[in-house]
Amino acid sequence: MEPITLSPPDARKQLAAQVKMLAARNGLSVSAITSAEPFPELAGFMERHIEAGHVEGMDWFTVDRARFSTDVRNLHPHAKSVISVGLAYWSGPAEKPDDVPRGRISRYAWGRDYHRTLKRRLKGLQADLEELAGRSLDTRILVDTARIVERAVAARAGLGWYGKNANLIVPGHGSWVMLGELVTDLDIAPDIPSEKNCGKCTICIDNCPTHAIVEPYTIHAPHCISYLTIEERGPIPHELRPLMQDWVYGCDVCQEVCPYTGAAKVVDETDMQPASISNQFPCLHWLLRMTDEEFGQTYFGTPVPRTKRRGLARNAAIALGNIGTEADIPVLALTLREHDEPIVRGHAAWALGRLGAAAEIRACTQTESDEYVRQEIDLALTNPAR
Ligand code: SF4
Ligand code: SF4
């Protein structure tokens, strides 16, 4: 490529067009540009969000952190532009293949960890831009970070608009898009924010299984299945367990029901494809019996290890309590007797209570020594959630 000499304003626009061409060449499905100007209007919104308890349990999400994130120059002082990019990953409808009791893993976590994929492609874009500019650039690559207001950046860049389910809706892809950013000292002509919005639609709000979308654009994270299955390390609140359906890692309901995601283009993104059925619809019995080695072999390199083996097994116990039948009682009883993690034994007791297996729970009352599991056993016997 010939190095370019920049002279405003046409060169800035020309550069914007070249950036998008290079982003596409590096496997980035969509890209758009905004300036590095701050987002002061978001500070108050995020403070109210924190005060209302919507991010309770995420100790890193503080008011100071929220304020910091509203100005990208706090992170990268010489920034002039932010290139917002997206990796689209809708691969078409998918159904459980058989009658085996299986859980569901959120679509973004089926394949390789998208953080690595996006970072690799953004590095390719950075190298191409340096060649184009004929100098090394002062840049920073960001993927899934709370250090900038990622979706607001994407919305101001016109990549899409902020949906009532708090996802970015990207024309042609819906919300099946993982976001990343290249912050740079290059002065690139910004794109125009989208004028689209959700209008009167409330489908995602009406269909959220746990009613976690408490108002448009606001997710109460402690009630969101995505937070519960991935971030929550302890017992899942009893009142939420029956609402969690068969999700064992994340939840896609508010995306699946959205008319814009329903119209998404199928993309051939190998990195986002599951290596096996266990990365997509894992057998719940297997999750309850899974060894550390099996967990590592199946999920290493995907986003799933974030929840750890015990988290996934805990979630499997809840899923069996929700979709299981009499045929699932023996494996739950075995889990209650023998699983090495108290958190999993406790949730197995809950699931057995749900399936009406009082005898199998009672069989463990003399042998269980863990105080937390004993409490779950008592509750499952005295007040089984049906
Ligand atoms: Fe509700 Fe699931 Fe969306 Fe969370 S991810 S807001 S639980 S539909
Ligand atoms: Fe917006 Fe409707 Fe999609 Fe929710 S389901 S994000 S309200 S368009």
Characterization of this structure:
This protein has helices spanning 10-25, 41-51, 63-69, 114-133, 150-156, 203-207, 225-230, 253-256, 259-262, 284-289, 292-299, 308-323, 329-338, 342-354, 358-362, 371-382; strands spanning 30-35, 81-88, 104-105, 139-143, 161-162, 168-169, 177-184, 213-215, 218-219, 247-249. The chain is of the alpha+beta class. Among the domains are: 11-92 and 108-184, no CATH class; 283-386, Leucine-rich Repeat Variant (Alpha Horseshoe). The radius of gyration is 23 Å and the shape is elongated. The model has no long low-confidence stretch (mean pLDDT 95). The structure holds iron/sulfur cluster (2 copies). The site of one iron/sulfur cluster (SF4) has 13 residues, from helix 6 and helix 9.
The helix tally amounts to 16
What would the principal axes of the Cα set say about the shape? elongated
How would you write the strand order of the largest sheet?
Answer: 1-2-7-4
- Approximate helicity band: 25-40%
Q: Characterize the biggest β-sheet.
A: 4 strands, antiparallel
Assembly type: single chain
Stretches where pLDDT is under 50 for at least 5 consecutive residues are none
Instruction: Kindly provide the radius of gyration, computed on alpha-carbon positions and rounded to a whole number of angstroms.
Output: 23 Å
> How far from one another are the termini?
66 Å
Secondary-structure element series:
HEHHEEHEHEEEHEEHEHHHHHHHHH
What is the number of beta strands?
A: 10
Proportion in β-strands: 5-15%
Bound molecules: iron/sulfur cluster
Q: Label the structural class.
A: alpha+beta
